[in-house]
Amino acid sequence: MSIECPTPHNEDEVVLLGHGAGGRLTAELLDRLVLPAFGGAAGPMEDAALLPGYRELVISTDSFVVSPLFFPGGDIGSLAVHGTVNDLAMRGAWPLALSVSLIVEEGLPLAELRAVLESLGKAAQDIGVPVVTGDTKVVGRGAADRLFINTTGVGQRHGPLHPSAALARPGDAVLLSGPIGLHGTTVLSTREGLGFESDISSDSRPLHRLVGTLAPLGAAVHALRDPTRGGLAAALNEIARDSSVTVEIEESAIPVPAAVASACDLLGLDPLVVANEGCMVAFVDAGAAEAALAAMRSVPEGAQAVRIGEVRLPEPAGRVTVRTLVGARRIVEMPLGELLPRIC
Q1: Are 2 and 19 within 8 A, CB to CB?
Q2: Cβ(151)–Cβ(118) under 8 Å?
Q3: 305-335, pLDDT tens digit by residue?
Q4: Distance in angstroms (rounded) separating the CA atoms of residues 239 and 336
């Protein structure tokens, strides 16, 4: 079974599945087509943006096209809420309100739609964030794949916590809140009937409370990112690029569940590029690393938090390396195309 979208020779002529993967093809699409249409980028590519004129208000928007709609540990409804809340949290913001828009394909059983909406509503209620507006469209059979969900979230930043992908500094400790690879492996296994989903489930969950534990550390928390599309590899490369630093991580320190490792071995995947929906990477001042780990471990979302690396002098800037189990170093590249399509 082939699960990687090959790199074409004419990627400028048509949109490819890999353009939505969150890796190098996505960056090319943004730089060459999307951002120029809107006047160009005003700064680093963040998960959420500050609202102009409202210094402490943050906004984020996202679309969810996961297949299948239901998977162990979640579904497209709860995933839409968690993903949007987490993007706000990565800018240090507490969620205030959500909008939800549905694109429904004709023929979707109403029972399935009801189950998704009930799950979405429960996820929002559990977090305490209201869904205040939205829209519903129905398209003909074959015009969509059952159900797509678009969400927008508005949040308010914790006073002293102002993380940005551009603020990582040499000497920073790199912390990871928990195991990687669970979401992408679970969704792929469920879709393809590989059987690994009997041993694992998606890590989809909200991370705003976890981020809230770091608020007392204030300016010592430099950058936060949830490694969704493109996995930990993409998240680290984005921060290294936007902060113009070099990041080095230890392979032995990265928690990879046994079932995830087995699935990746079978499929020829690197766990570093597999999507997650319930963990985050944090770049914090080295002097605050132990306090940050203790804070993260004080809540269930961060109970397995570990230190996985550090930021080095930018030589060369924007590079991510991993020290392997045998002591060698290898470069961790930004993922190119779509390894695991329709994961989020």
Answers
A1: no
A2: no
A3: 999 999 998 778 899 999 999 989 999 998 8
A4: 17
